Amino acid sequence: MKLKVLPPTLRKNNRYLTVEIKITSPFSKDELVTCVWDACIRFQGEANTANFNLWVMKFYEIESNDEFYTYKAIVRCQRDFVDDVRSSLALATKFNNSRIAITTVGLSGTISGSHKYI
Known about the structure:
alpha+beta; globular
């Protein structure tokens, strides 16, 4: 039997955050996933973070110089929790003994719409 696709009225409404990451050491997508989850759990708690529907969709290396490395990524979250995710990511300052700064560059309803911020 073929599975039915959920109608749009029953699907979760997602938003896509384009974030810019500046860090003092090299960084990978797996480390970004760990950093995002750690930041959200630390500042919002496990019960609230479970509702965020977090997922790192894309990860790009932009540039690197002597001081820091710059990356951009697209992070998916549920529409109702965008402000909580943004505040949690902004409050993250350390990861693996490296200084880190995560800022939200753009917000979009689709992945293709969030590519204009990269």
